[in-house]
Amino acid sequence: MLGGVTRMTISLTVLILECTGNIEFGLPLILISFFARWVGNYFNEGIYDIHIHLRHVPFLDWNPPLRGAFLRVKHIMTANPKTLRTVERAGVIFDLLVSTKHNSFPVIVEDPTFGSRFFAGVILRKQLNVLLSHNDFSIEKPKPFHRQPHPASYQADVTPTGTLRHRRPRDLEANTPRVDDKLLQSPLASTYCLSYHDMEAHYPRYPIPTPMRQDFHAAAHAGRIAGDELYTLAEEDRAMWVDLTPYMNQTPFLIQEEAPFERAYRLFRSGGLRHLVVVNRHNNVRGIITRHELEEEHITRCFRLAKNIDTDEVYPLSGAPPVGFFRKLRRKVSRTEQVKRALSSSVPMTRDGDGDSDNENDTALNELLRR
């Protein structure tokens, strides 16, 4: 019973052998545990898999769902994701963080000439929270891709005399801000940006945005955010500009919208990705994929939707022959019907007394069937 519920085979056999000390029962126990696993898999999943689904954990199996072989990335992605510009208003960023729970946001570059939005990078939610909590604003719109960390944030390992500098423990060094907030509020803010140590100084509890000051005390009194740094955005700071280019990841994983679903699944499974931006051939952001879009339930819904909208696009992308009812999606018209249509359009079906036309039609039919 334990083997059928937990789907354990070798490990369960080893545990029983160690408890009993009878090595001669090893082979029968292995056979029984495998048989119990096969019987359990016939009816439902194991208890661990059931708990994973109940807790809505986006756990990915090693192999993709079977219906995923018939889909493309554009069929499963979340279209029109929330995006940010390379230089964005602080109020827009704050409202986006408050209204959504997404972990990552694509950063775009707008082209006013053609009205296109080209992909520039990806920025994480924690980075945006740190920027707003540190008041990394500027009154005038900064020029993107021109800011660098302040020299004070660097600490040389070698002193001018040539000896090694005594380094503090890494945990203390990482949790100590390197740049003062006053520096960011000065005119130098248009030249310098936060360093990596400033961004990670709040680990593991990053700042949390809240729209009103009353929510601070309510959340803190409830104990839901104990130890977190709460922040809000003043009304006069909403029109400030925030430069995202020094902090965004300019080389994330990307995938084309026409790519097969299995390719995106392998990227998530092998690379341990959390999100994947979908672009078209012009490098415009079309959507985003998370692990929730790769679950079998979502793939089944997308497959049925794609099959009802356009059955011509639902076919095996890997070149494997269709199986079962999927064969009807690829071959809606039988070979005999195709031959009859070809004969009706190419060979005139006229009858005469000698029956020569019927013989010619039969000969042409046999030739087409042999092709």
From TrEMBL:
SUPFAM superfamilies: CBS-domain pair, Clc chloride channel. InterPro entries: CBS_dom, CBS_dom_sf, Cl-channel/antiporter, Cl-channel_core, ClC. Residues 170-180 have a biased composition (Basic and acidic residues). Residues 143-180, 340-371 are annotated as: Disordered. It is a multi-pass membrane protein. It is found in: Membrane. GO terms for cellular component: membrane. One of its GO terms (molecular function) is chloride channel activity. Residues 248-311 form the CBS domain. Keywords: CBS domain, Chloride, Ion transport, Membrane, Repeat, Transmembrane, Transmembrane helix, Transport. Pfam families: CBS, Voltage_CLC. PROSITE patterns: CBS. Belongs to the chloride channel (TC 2.A.49) family. This is Chloride channel protein.
